[in-house]
Amino acid sequence: MIRLQNLTLQRGPQRLLEGAxxxxxxxxxxGLIGANGAGKSSLFALxxxxxxxxxxxxxxxxxxxxxxxxxEVDTLERPAVEYVLDGDANxxxxxxxxxxxxxxxxxxxxxxxxxxxxxxxxxxADARARKLLAGLGFANEQMGRAVGDFSGGWRMRLNLAQAxxxxxxxxxxxxxxxxxxxxxILWLEGWLKSYPGTLLLISHDRDFLDAVVDHIAHxxxxxxxxxxxxxxxxERARAERLAQQQQAYEKQQAQRAHMEDFIRxxxxxxxxxxxxxxxxxxxxxxxxxxxxxxxxxxxFRFREAxxxxxxxxxxxxxxxxxxxxxxxxxxxxxxxxxxxxxxxGPNGAGKSTLVKTLxxxxxxxxxxxxxxxxxxxxxxxxxxxxxxxxKASPLLHLQRIAEGEREQVLRDFLGGFDFRGNRCDExxxxxxxxxxxxxxxxxxxxxxPNxxxxxxxxxxxxxxMRLALTLALQEFxxxxxxxxxxxxxxxxxxxxxxxxxxxxxxxxxxDLDDYARWLIEYRLRQAPAAAPSxxxxxxxxxxxxxxxxLRQQLAPHKREVEKLEKQLGEVQEKLAALETRLGDGGLYDxxxxxxxxxxxAEQTTLKGRExxxxxxxxxxxxxxxxxxxELENVE
Length: 635
What we know:
Elements: E1 2-11, E2 14-24, E3 29-34, H1 40-47, E4 55-59, E5 66-68, H2 80-85, H3 89-103, H4 107-119, H5 125-135, H6 152-165, E6 170-174, H7 182-193, E7 198-202, H8 206-212, E8 215-220, E9 223-228, H9 231-243, H10 246-269, H11 273-289, E10 313-322, E11 325-335, E12 340-344, H12 351-358, E13 366-371, E14 377-380, H13 394-401, H14 407-415, H15 433-446, E15 451-455, H16 463-475, E16 479-483, H17 487-493, E17 496-501, E18 504-508, H18 512-526, H19 540-582, H20 593-634
Parallel strand pairs: 3-7, 3-8, 5-6, 6-7, 12-16, 12-17, 14-15, 15-16
Antiparallel strand pairs: 1-2, 1-4, 8-9, 10-11, 10-13, 17-18
Helix pairs in contact: 3-4, 5-6, 10-11, 11-17, 13-14, 13-15, 19-20
Coiled coil: 547-581
Organism: Serpens gallinarum
Protein name: ATP-binding cassette domain-containing protein
């Protein structure tokens, strides 16, 4: 097990941990959370043996194999698949010794090493590496390309694949989802759920934490507190702790009133579909859990536009792409004030192409794109962080677009993004990715947009800033079109989804759980067809017997899938009814707190049952589809 006892850890003059205690048992999966700079990455370095405690003890089993996701890439000429295989150091050792034994014609060593290779699953290593790369979004033709050919974000995916390739007892992952799209995150969730070792994970993605971990280790004020359950359970537990303090309780009441106002405003408009209900549910959840973020340094809003057009944008028969390459065709999209749209779709399908075209960074190749007379776009994309003036301070950046405004007004506005005091006046040259993202959002928020085009806005943002962004988007009166791998943000700020796939943009009638199932089917459709059979050499009788055996196996699996679907439907019906009851504004009166507490407990139980059934159903469905594919190949 991992055991930290009375641990003190210091980096330079800053004390990160003092008297910290933590125990993690083999096989546990824990999320490590805390403010930026609190010491999460330093704790990882301590566990890897790169740092030593200043006091106390850090105990790990001596024979544990530790894998971690590197932040640098040093072999740019290496083919991607070989780079991933390098993650298994023992495999590479055996392969090197095999090469030497073959050159020396050492039969005894060859026999021993081939046994070692078999024990290390070396014969399947290349296939496993390619499966990891495919899951993380790499196409087959990309797997042989040199590491240096890929952008920084894709190199981080290669580092993640390399860490997953390494056989380990302890896996340390620092922000693994930062450079992933939603498809790859859903795949990674499934991989980590089946990981048999101990997992310690730094992440600012609350839905990802809820799906993967069974404990949360919170690093706050130089101490570590371990909470049972995922991130939502942590929020509830921490909210209860904070509510015991009078000052925190008073702040929570103000936040609660703010949330109830949001619920009332949105429920008056919500008339459509599960997406609307999901948003109400998310708002109610935020109301209950907001106290966990009562000490957040972030609080801001998007300033209201002076004028509005309707529609803001109207795209008809759009043909979008780059140069002579068409990525999307026959695109029809109209954005009006109040539109709240989330873009879904596989990696590379054209989501960013659509957003860049709407933002006027790309010219449409065909069709008609009409912009409203009073259109004011706030556009956020990762590449814009590099466009910030490295020599200018946050205050100077804002002064350039706010001519004539008093300096104190600008400083107060930047304070909502946690740029305070001297930090307002420091050049952004050495700012972190998160600080640059906050500054880019601050400049957009000041600009009074009536249309927000957001392409992965939560990259590098911590949990408190993500909550502040969610609240600001909920309050924003204009239109929002967002691409994000943060499912909580999508559920909380959008009420309809568009699916970008196969060269088309069309409405997606479902929620994010439906999208996860759609992705499974999409990947199966995209899988390469099986090689043709060599009919002359096939034993027809054996082929018929194999097909009959497979059909016999299929029947019980079909029945089990249908049974699980029925059970899942029943649980979802109960959840829908329960969430309707939770939508009653009167339920949040103090006199009905026991009823609310009981309903929330029932909701937690049902959600746990839903997740369990869904996971089991997906596993059985995948197995059923695999058997069906085998049967088609045999027949």
